[in-house]
Each structure stands twice: as structure tokens, then as C-alpha cells.
Write a structure and sequence with these properties.
Keywords: Coiled coil
Structural class: mainly alpha
Helix content: over 70%
Order of helices and strands: H
Organism: Geobacillus subterraneus
Protein name: t-SNARE coiled-coil homology domain-containing protein
Number of helices: 1
Radius of gyration: 50 Å
Strand content: under 5%
Distance between the termini: 171 Å
Number of strands: 0
């Protein structure tokens, strides 16, 4: 009987040990599940941040494109104004040249008339 008692005690100790091991495995499993949930939450946050960054990137690209169009339009208007400003002195010079020729012609006629008297 003593052997049965010792065997029963060994089995009881092994059963307690197995029960303790099961509890430790369950605790580890719960920690693992918790870590998986945290990783999933981080992945979702990362995906959300990626989407927001892509949206911001798109907005910035649109704003830059709009700014480039605006700057190009203003440069084109400025070039057009400068083109007119360049034409005006040329036209003024041509007018001055024309009047200079006419004044010289009139001076010759006046001198001719004065000498002819």
C-alpha cells in the first residue's frame, strides 16, 4: 500500500505540475494574443497614416501644379508687356527719324527760298 500511496502522491504532484504548466501556457497564449492585437492596431494606424500621407502628397502636387500655372501665366503677361515696351521705343525712334528728315527738308526749302529772293 505504501507503494500505491507514493505512486498516488507522485501522480498528484505531476497533476499539479501539469495544471501549473497549463496555466502558464494559457497566460503565454493570452500575452501572444494581446501582442497580435497590438500589432494589428499598429498596422491599421500605419495604413491610415500612409493614406493621409498620400492624400497630402496629392494635395501638394496639385497646389504646386496650380502655382506653376499661375507663375507661367504671370510670366507670359510680363513678357507680353515687355514686348510692347520694346516696340514703343522702336516706333518712337522711327517717328523721330521721320520728323528729322522732314525738318531737314523744310530747312533746305526755307534756305532755298531765302536765297532765291
Amino acid at each position: 500500500m505504501e507503494e500505491k500511496t507514493i505512486l498516488a502522491q507522485i501522480l498528484q504532484v505531476l497533476d499539479l505540475y501539469a495544471s501549473d504548466m497549463r496555466k502558464q501556457f494559457e497566460a503565454l497564449h493570452e500575452k501572444f494574443d494581446s501582442l497580435q492585437r497590438q500589432v494589428q492596431a499598429l498596422n491599421e494606424k500605419t495604413d491610415e497614416m500612409d493614406k493621409r500621407i498620400e492624400e497630402m502628397d496629392g494635395r501638394f502636387e496639385r497646389q504646386i501644379a496650380q502655382l506653376e500655372r499661375t507663375v507661367n501665366e504671370r510670366f507670359e503677361r510680363l513678357e507680353a508687356k515687355l514686348g510692347h515696351i520694346r516696340v514703343e521705343p522702336v516706333e518712337t525712334q522711327e517717328t523721330v527719324d521721320f520728323h528729322s528728315v522732314k525738318i531737314a527738308q523744310h530747312d533746305r526749302k526755307i534756305r532755298h527760298l531765302l536765297h532765291a529772293r
